[in-house]
Structure formats: C-alpha cells, structure tokens
Specification:
The structure holds 2 protein chains of 2 kinds.
Chain A lengths: L18 H4 L3 H5 L8 H23 L7 H8 L5 H35 L12 H15 L6 H6 L2 H21 L6 H25 L2 H11 L8 H20 L1 H7 L3 H6 L4 H23 L5 H13 L6 H21 L7 H25 L1
Helix pairs in contact in A: 3-5, 3-16, 4-5, 5-11, 5-14, 5-15, 5-16, 6-8, 6-9, 6-10, 6-14, 8-9, 8-14, 9-10, 11-14, 15-16, 16-17
Chain B lengths: L42 E10 L2 E11 L4 E5 L6 H8 L7 E6 L2 E2 L5 H7 E4 L11 H6 L14 H13 L15 H14 L4 E5 L7 H18 L2 E5 L3 H7 L2 E6 L2 E6 L1 H4 L2 H8 L3 E5 L6 E5 L6
Parallel strand pairs in B: 3-8, 3-9, 6-7, 7-8
Antiparallel strand pairs in B: 1-2, 1-4, 4-5, 9-10, 11-12
C-alpha cells in the first residue's frame, strides 16, 4: 500500500467521479481547469451576461426619445434603416458599448489584482493606474491651452493618450519602486499608496493653478463619464479586451496557486515573480484602457470582484463573472444616471454612490464575521 | 566549548567523512550508498550564505542530504534552520554559494521540473477562505500538468489517495479554514504528498498540534520514507521526537553546523548546552531507546 503512488484506483474517463471523495460534486472533478465550470459559478455568469445584454438594449432604448426595444434589437442586427437606426448605431450604441466594456475590463482587472495581492483592497488603483491616468489627463486638459470643451479635447485623441501614458508610467514606477529582488504584494500596496498620493497632489496642483473653466472641465473628466464617447472610444477598448481578457482567463489556474502564498506556489512549480508580473501587466493594460475611455469610473474594480466572490462562494473572484457583473454595474449606473435625474449625472458618481456604501457594509459584515 | 566554526574550515568535505566536529560525528548514510562518492547527494549546499536583508543567518555552509534518509534540522530559535530549509527548497535565494539538486544547481532548472522532484511545506501556510481540502490538495498536481496535459482522472486519483493517506476523506469538501489545527496541518501535508516528489522538505510540520497529532504526522512521514524511499528533511522543535523519527540530526548554531550525525551521536548534554543553552540530561527513551532529553531541575522545580 502506498500513500501516493501513481496508480489510480479508478482509471475512468475524465469526468467520471473518482472514488467517494469526488462523488456528487462535478465541479471539483474539473479542478484546475477553471472556476468558470463549477455549476454555481456558471449559473451566475450566464445570468450576469444575460442581464448585461438586457441592459445594453435598455441603455440604447432610453434617451431623449424612447426607442422600442424591438426596434433596438432590429437595429443592432442591422435590420433597421432610417433615423431610428441612425440614433441606435451611431449615437447611442457607442456609449452603451463603452460602458459595457469599461465595466468588463474593470471587473476582470479588479479580480486579477485582488487575487494576486491577496487583498480585497488591492484594486488596480493601488498600482497607480488611476492617479497616473488622472495626472496625464488633467495635464493634457490644463496645459493643453485651456480648451473649454472637454469633449472637443477627448475627441481629438489627446486625453485618452495622455491618460494611458500616465497610467502606464505610474504603474511601472510602482512596480519598480516595489522591487526588491522580487515584488512582494504588501510592498506593492504600500508603494502604490505612496505613489498615488504623490500623483494626486500633482493633479490637485494642476487644478488649483488652472483657470476655473478649465478646472471644471478637468473635474468632469476626473469623476468618470460616458458622455463623450464615440466609436473611436469603443475600438481601442474592444481590442484590449479581446486580447487581454482571454490571456487573463488562461492564468486562472496559476492565480489559484499564487494565492496560496509565494513559498507554497514556488514549491508546486509556479514561477511566482513571472506570474505576478504578467497578472499585474494585464490588470494595468485593462484598467488603463478603461480609464482612457471613460475616466476613472469609481469603485467598479473594487466592488465587483467582491460581489462575484460572494455570489460564487469560491476562494477567489471568478474572472468571467467579475467581468459580466462589472458590465452590469456600469450599464445600470449609466442608465440610472441618464434617466433618474432631470440632469445628466456622470456614471462615475453613480458607481461610487453604489460602491462606497458597499465598502462600508463589507467592513461591518467582516467585523461581525471576525467576532462570531 | 568552541562551537562556532565547525562548518567553516572544511569547505571541501571528503565524500565519506564530512564531520570534523569534536564529537567526530559522521553523516549517517541511511540511503546506504556507503559514501562511494559517485552518486551525487539528493541535495547539497556548497558554501551557502543565506539570510534576510544582506545579513546572512548562515555563513559558508556545506551540507549534503543523502537519498532515502530522514534528516532533521535542530537549533535554538533564530539559528537559521528554517532559513536553510527554504534555501534547499529554492524559495529563498542564497547570498553566496549554491544548492544542488541531484548534482545540478537548483536555480538553473525550470521551477516546474524541480517541483516534480522536490516538495516544500512552509511553516504555517494560510489558505484563502473558501478553499476546500480538495481544492488545496489538487494544487499539488500542478507540476505534473501543462497545456498539453491538463487535469486528468489520474490527478484526481492521486489527490484523493493523498487525502485518504492523511485521514481527511471525511472532510475533503470542507473549507480548510473550518478544520481543526491538526486536520488543517494534515491537509497541507496532503498537498505535498499529492505532489509525488521524492524529496520532501517540511518546516515544522507538527507546529500547533497536540502530541497525538504530532505523532500522526511523524509516523506518516516515516511511512513515506520507508515505503516509498522518500527523502525527508524537516525542521522540528521537539528534540526527543526528532531523535525518535530521524536517521540524522543536524544542529545549527551561530551561522553554521555544530553537530551532525545519528541522534545518539548528536544529542549529548554538552551539545544541548552549546546550541540551546540548556542544562539537560539525555536518557534512553523507555519505548524505543532513542535519546530523550530531560531538562535538569533548578530551584523552581
């Protein structure tokens, strides 16, 4: 007899339950293949995707003129000509798609960083992405000659490029400063907080010395908004999502190993530093794309993975579920922002108003869990 | 009692007789190759200096671990026994010198290939909430998987057997965090067992366990060694248990090895005084005859 010889007791086909330990729970059979195939995770993911699609149709339907959902669907599949088809595909769809993609990539990026830092507060913000992008964008607005209209600057391509550059430079700085023969998660979080605070001070300085009209324009960008989107906002985001999200999904098994801690992960053969660099790079690229498209949309990357984690009952946020829920949150928040108030509220304010109470609830609940 | 530099003046140990200590300890060859010198040891430290923040805990240390033996590192708190184990397990990078696995520098080999031959269990690892025993143990199969060969029924069977061998079948689907300390420690050991590596490095595998559970763990380790020829290197605190379940004891003190040999050779009152500052008698364990450490009385006793 032996504890761990290779001879399997039941050498059945993959998928057949092996022994009593695996009976009655198909999900564990597939194991490291991915969380997404566990029944509960799969169910919630499908539900979230359906909800996101419904919100896309609703988001296009709602506006200064109501367009019937049936007409929206016909227009989306290209079967609707005329003015309503134009409104759907040219005017409203880019905004709704941008919202969906921003939510998707922020949800995935947040799940990646929270898992790799083993910290629910470990959002892409802490790698400096948001504060770096903010400095870049605000500098472009303020130093860019005092343009009065944000949308004019945005459409010229200046702000997204400046924001992306700012985000990437800040992220590289945080990683570089956090490096000490390798990067430890807690060090990364601390360095990230320091770098973010410094960059936020630069942003404040730029705002203070700017003319009031320019500062107002910059402030609008800083709360995150979908109001100045077009197809040129959608494409870069779509390309980034199409490349980076599948790579992120492929790291799923490694994420599960990495969260056992560096020593255990190394022990079972994970190249820990390379893995961490890849995951952080993916998160930075994803969240930089989001912030370039819509500005810093608050709290999505923080809240959504935590919701996904609790719905799924897994030991880390399932990536696809987090992405789908991110799309739901941003689409829902934008719909609310456009329809529930007599004036347009930037989507970033709504996501924050939803997200901040959630943070507090999470902390209160956590304290209860601890004291139980 | 000079016990500070025993390991430093023999940077080039002879294949058969590395011990130059005053007690004349010789490395116990449990694997039985008799020190022919042709087969490289499973693990070897050469001129190893290792520590944290540029200040080495261990300096210029040479040590060889023979195949099929159970070796335990002993020493006072902070003597570097865990540090040495981490260096052997390539989770801590040496400041100087190198570690060889089967004669090849361990850091030059792909991490995954090393993980198929060498498993390490760190001290008190923590599993994230929501991790079941099965989730955890399955991770041990990682080094055997690749893009071309993902999770198979074989892997499931090995994981399941590892769970059975550690007596956790009943709780295989429970959250690791909800288990008792003894079960939790065994779940981590099951992960290492599922890895099916020939060499196991265990850092204080009996921490937080009551005596019965400590014995469970050490007996499991012994069984892996006897039945599968696993090479085991452990860090333990309990000297008498270490003596009972080890072929060889290596005592670390002041940056180097002060004693190295069989439990009977190593555990002497003089050594306990030197390495631990402990006044104690060594008497035969009435059950197995292994050396047992009994502290001397002082006025408080």
């Amino acid at each position: 007899m032996s504890a761990a010889t290779g001879a399997p007791r039941t050498a059945g086909a993959p998928g057949t339950p092996v022994g009593p330990a695996a009976a009655g729970r198909r999900g564990v059979q597939l194991g490291p293949v991915g969380l997404a195939w566990r029944p509960r995770v799969l169910g919630y993911t499908v539900a979230a995707i359906v909800l996101a699609l419904v919100l896309v149709v609703l988001g296009v339907a709602v506006g200064s003129t109501w367009i019937a959902p049936g007409t929206v669907v016909r227009a989306l599949v290209g079967a609707e000509d005329g003015p309503q088809g134009f409104i759907v595909t040219t005017l409203r769809l880019p905004r709704v798609l941008t919202g969906a993609l921003v939510g998707l990539v922020l949800g995935v990026a947040g799940a990646l960083t929270q898992t790799v830092t083993r910290n629910p507060l470990g959002t892409p913000d802490i790698i400096g992405v948001t504060s770096g992008a903010s400095v870049g964008a605000v500098a472009a607005i303020v130093l860019g000659g005092g343009t009065y209209s944000v949308s004019a600057v945005v459409l010229s391509g200046g702000i997204p490029v400046a924001a992306t550059l700012g985000a990437l430079v800040a992220a590289v700085a945080v990683y570089g400063l956090g490096w000490r023969g390798g990067v430890q998660s807690y060090r990364l979080v601390l360095v990230g907080i320091g770098v973010s605070a410094t960059l936020d001070a630069v942003t404040s300085y730029l705002l203070v010395r700017a003319k009031i009209t320019v500062a107002t324009a910059a402030s609008q960008w800083l709360v995150g908004s979908l109001s100045s989107t077009s197809w040129s906002t959608v494409w870069p985001l779509l390309v980034v999502a199409a490349v980076a999200v599948p790579i992120a999904l492929a790291t799923s098994a490694a994420l599960g190993i990495g969260q056992l801690g560096d020593e255990v992960a190394t022990g079972v053969g994970l190249a820990v530093q390379r893995h961490r660099l890849l995951v952080l790079a993916l998160a930075v690229v994803l969240s930089a794309a989001a912030v370039a498209a819509a500005g810093p949309v608050g709290f999505v990357a923080f809240v959504v993975p935590q919701v996904a984690l609790r719905l799924a009952g897994t030991n880390r946020p399932p990536l696809l579920l987090a992405g789908a829920l991110g799309a739901v949150l941003v689409l829902g928040a934008d719909l609310l922002a456009r329809s529930a108030f007599p004036w347009q509220v930037p989507v970033g304010i709504v996501t924050t108003v939803v997200g901040a109470p959630y943070l507090i609830w999470l902390l209160v609940r956590h304290r209860k869990e601890m004291s139980r | 009692m000079t016990a500070t530099t025993a390991s430093r003046h023999d940077a080039e140990p002879d294949a058969g007789a590395p011990g130059t200590d005053t007690r004349g300890a010789t490395a116990h060859r449990a694997g039985g190759d008799g020190g022919t010198g042709t087969v490289p040891p499973v693990l070897e430290a050469r001129g190893l200096s290792v520590g944290y923040d540029r200040d080495p805990v261990l300096r210029d240390l040479d040590l060889r671990i023979e195949r099929g033996s159970v070796t335990t590192f002993l020493g006072a708190n902070g003597c570097g026994k865990s540090t040495l184990l981490k260096a052997f397990g390539r989770v801590l990078k040496p400041q100087a010198g190198e570690v060889l696995l089967d004669g090849v520098p361990i850091r030059k080999e792909p991490n995954r290939a090393v993980a198929r031959r060498l498993a390490i269990l760190p001290q008190t690892p923590v599993a994230p909430a929501g991790t079941s025993v099965l989730d955890l143990v399955m991770r041990g199969r990682n080094p055997h998987q690749s893009w071309a060969r993902p999770w198979t029924a074989d892997d499931a069977a090995v994981a399941e057997q590892a769970i059975a061998a550690t007596g956790l079948t009943e709780v295989a689907h429970r959250d690791v965090a909800s288990l008792s300390g003894g079960q939790r420690q065994r779940a981590w050991i099951a992960l290492v067992v599922a890895q099916q590596a020939d060499t196991l490095l265990l850092d204080e595998p009996t921490t937080y366990l009551d005596l019965a559970h400590q014995l469970d763990v050490l007996r499991l380790v012994r069984r892996l060694n006897r039945e599968q020829g696993s090479t085991v290197v452990m860090v333990l605190h309990d000297l008498s248990l270490a003596a009972r379940y080890s072929d060889r004891l290596v005592v670390l003190h002041d940056g180097g090895v002060v004693a190295d040999g069989t439990p009977h050779e190593v555990l002497t009152p003089a050594l306990l005084e030197t390495a631990f500052g402990l006044h104690a008698r060594v008497v035969p364990d009435p059950v197995t005859g292994a050396p047992m450490v009994v502290p001397e009385a002082d006025e408080q006793d």
